[in-house]
């Protein structure tokens, strides 16, 4: 500690109290997964509404003068009601890439900046998409079950799988994640094409204007887009029919992008060949019909949950908050119309 | 060619292969013959070809018992079940199925790496058993950027390297050091690895995980592995796709036909 400073006799604790506050409405999953210490900084202090007995609006009003930023995660919406109670807030940082839970127009109206998880998760999500595709095509999980049940010795060889090389793979949503998936699939000899909101000028993969046409020309669809009003139930009966009996679908976006009830019917009737799913319409209550299917691979929405990515996330979150508080450019500012 | 006797020494690996062989030759399925010695005594003169696979081929003893054997056509790229020295000595031709299965085996190697590191099979079980309703699955290990060591940089090894590079994995040769977080993938042959040692390393946590498509004594898989969550076990399906098995079968048939029609072999070893 050293020599007492005549300018300030504050204790360390008091200095902490003076720091700008970052409010949290719920604990982000990452706090428990890799520890809150990873998000610590000497430039701000967290204020947790969930640790207080006070009703939310009262808590926020009490502290509104010192709350400069919000750290949000899915499940705790950042809406007009919240923002109205926090006039000093200039930044919303999310731990997710998706921003469904943030009222973006309201933030814009108030001049509030938004920073999301940027690309920290892209590798892991892309890896999982490829893993699920190989798994469903080559029946990896189904074969592993077969061996573990002792059936290889008893019954002989399991079913043949389907070759990945040469398959026409359609990426639905060629954002950062979709692009990472495409690059990996090319190394396996897949033929990549895509559908996206807009054609990407610097990409040589064939572009299809609508997802139905993409499905008709592919052996496998990989859903990599975000959930919006336009993409809700975008993968519907016509798309699944176009994909066809030998077609596969992998979803690492959001469950609601697919008409799940219709997909289950198609799978049960053999109208598509199989699916690899990390997301579902009603997590974690997965439809029971899936459990009886050997041509489906089920993953409990954990495409981003590796310690490596979460560590990268923590550095990004802290970096964004510190940059904002020191008037530096944000590291992963969200800009509309990506 | 119907009078030519072909002895399939392995358990029939593929229905299409058997069908095509039966159309052209007199096919004997050795695996299901109860009294093999008696059978050989009665039929050895008519057997001019052997079809083998990764499970069984032609060892010195069998070759010795087949005086009219001219060609061994293997439904595999691995040649460990064929006594090549004996074949060379006797002037017996040997063919195999290179290249057509390279992609499938390489794809599966990467698939196994992803399945082990990201616990795909285990998390699939987690969902199916209803455990997800009780809580989230745990963290798993990122694959992109991990260093990959390849034993055997042949066609298959190179194809694996090419795929791993797309995940930004630095590639190197495998070094024989014990790494508690290391993962072993075996898509080659069971005997490459000291299986009892591998099992104890996994059970004792001295090795981080394993993805195994091949075993010392297939289809027997050490049961100690069944309870391990960091292990993926596959029933030798490296080349097991409809597309590739057909291409392999066509090569086996093509080689036999070429031989008996006095044409150059398609994919000879000897």
TrEMBL record, chain A:
Its EC number is 1.1.1.79. Coiled coil: none annotated. Belongs to the D-isomer specific 2-hydroxyacid dehydrogenase family. This is glyoxylate reductase (NADP(+)). The keyword Oxidoreductase applies. One of its GO terms (molecular function) is glyoxylate reductase (NADPH) activity. Residues 130-303 form the D-isomer specific 2-hydroxyacid dehydrogenase NAD-binding domain. InterPro entries: D-isomer_2-hydroxyacid_DH, D-isomer_2_OHA_DH_cat_dom, D-isomer_DH_NAD-bd, NAD(P)-bd_dom_sf. GO terms for biological process: photorespiration. Residues 46-332 form the D-isomer specific 2-hydroxyacid dehydrogenase catalytic domain. GO terms for cellular component: cytosol. Keywords: NAD, NADP, Oxidoreductase.
TrEMBL record, chain B:
One of its GO terms (molecular function) is hydroxypyruvate reductase [NAD(P)H] activity. One of its GO terms (cellular component) is cytosol. Residues 17-269 form the D-isomer specific 2-hydroxyacid dehydrogenase catalytic domain. This is HYDROXYPHENYLPYRUVATE REDUCTASE-LIKE. Belongs to the D-isomer specific 2-hydroxyacid dehydrogenase family. SUPFAM superfamilies: Formate/glycerate dehydrogenase catalytic domain-like, NAD(P)-binding Rossmann-fold domains. It comes from Salix viminalis (Common osier). Pfam families: 2-Hacid_dh, 2-Hacid_dh_C. InterPro entries: D-isomer_2-hydroxyacid_DH, D-isomer_2_OHA_DH_cat_dom, D-isomer_DH_CS1, D-isomer_DH_NAD-bd, NAD(P)-bd_dom_sf. Residues 179-238 form the D-isomer specific 2-hydroxyacid dehydrogenase NAD-binding domain. Keywords: NAD, Oxidoreductase.
């Amino acid at each position: 500690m050293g020599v007492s400073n005549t300018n300030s006799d504050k204790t360390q604790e008091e200095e902490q109290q003076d720091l700008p506050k970052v409010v949290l409405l719920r604990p982000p999953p990452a706090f428990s997964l890799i520890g809150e210490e990873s998000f610590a900084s000497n430039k701000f202090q967290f204020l947790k509404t969930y640790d207080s007995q006070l009703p939310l609006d009262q808590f926020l009003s009490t502290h509104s003068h010192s709350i400069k930023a919000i750290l949000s995660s899915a499940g705790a919406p950042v809406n007009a009601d919240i923002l109205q109670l926090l006039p000093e807030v200039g930044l919303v940082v999310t731990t997710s890439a998706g921003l469904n839970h943030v009222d973006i127009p309201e933030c814009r109206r108030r001049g509030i900046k938004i920073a999301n998880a940027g690309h920290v998760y892209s590798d892991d999500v892309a890896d999982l998409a490829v893993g699920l595709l190989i798994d469903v095509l080559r029946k990896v999980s189904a074969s592993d079950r077969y061996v573990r049940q002792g059936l290889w010795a008893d019954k002989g060889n399991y079913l043949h799988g389907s070759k990945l090389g040469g398959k026409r793979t359609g990426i639905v949503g060629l954002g950062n994640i979709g692009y990472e998936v495409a690059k990996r699939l090319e190394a396996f000899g897949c033929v990549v094409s895509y559908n996206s909101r807009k054609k990407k000028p610097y990409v040589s993969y064939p572009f299809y204007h609508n997802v139905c046409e993409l499905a008709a020309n592919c052996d496998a669809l990989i859903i990599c887009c975000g959930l919006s009003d336009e993409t809700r139930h975008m993968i519907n009966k016509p798309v699944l029919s176009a994909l066809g009996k030998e077609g596969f679908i992998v979803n690492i976006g959001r469950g609601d992008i697919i008409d799940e009830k219709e997909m289950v019917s198609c799978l049960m009737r053999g109208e598509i060949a199989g699916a690899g799913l990390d997301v579902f319409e009603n997590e974690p209550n997965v439809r029971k019909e899936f459990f009886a299917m050997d041509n489906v691979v089920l993953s409990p929405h954990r495409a981003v949950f590796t310690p490596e990515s979460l560590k990268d996330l923590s550095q990004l979150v802290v970096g964004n908050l510190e940059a904002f508080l020191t008037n530096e450019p944000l590291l992963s500012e969200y800009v509309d119309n990506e | 060619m119907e009078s030519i006797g072909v002895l399939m020494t392995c358990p029939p690996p593929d229905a299409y292969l058997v069908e095509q062989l039966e159309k052209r030759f007199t096919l004997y399925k050795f695996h299901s013959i109860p009294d093999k010695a008696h059978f050989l005594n009665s039929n050895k003169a008519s057997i001019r070809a052997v079809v083998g696979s990764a499970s069984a081929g032609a060892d010195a003893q069998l070759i010795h018992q087949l005086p009219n054997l001219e060609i061994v056509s293997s439904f595999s790229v691995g040649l460990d079940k064929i006594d090549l020295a004996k074949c060379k000595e006797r002037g017996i031709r040997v063919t195999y199925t290179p290249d057509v299965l390279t992609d499938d085996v390489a794809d599966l190697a990467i698939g196994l790496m992803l399945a082990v590191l990201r616990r795909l099979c285990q998390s699939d079980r987690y969902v199916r058993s209803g455990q997800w309703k009780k809580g989230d699955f745990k963290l798993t290990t990122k694959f992109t950027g991990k260093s990959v060591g390849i034993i055997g940089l042949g066609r298959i090894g190179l194809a694996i390297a090419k795929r791993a590079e797309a995940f930004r994995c630095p590639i190197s040769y495998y070094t024989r050091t014990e790494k508690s977080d290391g993962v072993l993938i075996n898509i080659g042959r069971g005997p490459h690895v000291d299986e009892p040692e591998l099992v104890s390393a996994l059970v004792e946590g001295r090795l981080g995980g394993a993805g195994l498509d091949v075993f010392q004594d297939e289809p027997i898989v050490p049961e100690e592995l069944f309870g391990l969550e960091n292990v993926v076990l596959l029933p030798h399906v490296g080349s097991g796709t409809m597309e590739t098995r057909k291409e392999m079968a066509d090569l086996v048939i093509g080689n036999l036909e070429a031989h008996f029609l006095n044409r150059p072999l398609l994919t000879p070893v000897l």
